[in-house]
Amino acid sequence: MRPGTVVSLVLRPRTDGKRWTAVRSSAPAFVLPSGWQLDADGTARASLRCPGTRGGAADISALAKEPDLAGTGGVAFTFRVTVVPHTTAG
């Protein structure tokens, strides 16, 4: 990704009965999850944006849990997003 980029993440409903609960970033300075939405059918949507101008990487984790349990749930999967700064002439 490039700084200033916004990517939409769509998580389809799970088949194991768990519901998506949140998306977390290990480095919000590089990739910031925002705009969380959970549809009635279980589809979750989040926006991932790169707020800064420098390069770096962040691990993005999607959390899921059983609907009748308290808490945010456990990590269902994690993926890495790398932010590559724009090149400068000079």
Say how many strands there are: 6
The overall pLDDT average reads: 87
Structural category is mainly beta
Report helical residue fraction.
under 10%
* Global geometry: elongated
**Count of discrete alpha- or pi-helical segments spanning 4 or more residues:** 0
Please compute the radius of gyration using only Cα atoms: 15 Å
Order of strands, widest sheet: 1-4-3
**Per DSSP, what share of the residues sits in E-state strands of 2 or more residues?**
over 45%
What distance lies between the first and last C-alpha atoms, to the nearest angstrom? Answer: 23 Å
Give the SSE order as H and E letters.
EEEEEE
Largest sheet: 3 strands, antiparallel
Poorly predicted regions are none
Overview of this protein structure:
The protein has no helices and 6 strands. The chain has 90 residues and is mainly β. The chain has a 3-stranded antiparallel β-sheet with strand order 1-4-3, with no helix packed on it. The protein has a 3-stranded antiparallel β-sheet with strand order 2-5-6, with no helix packed on it. The two termini are 23 Å apart. The relative contact order is 0.32. The mean pLDDT is 87.
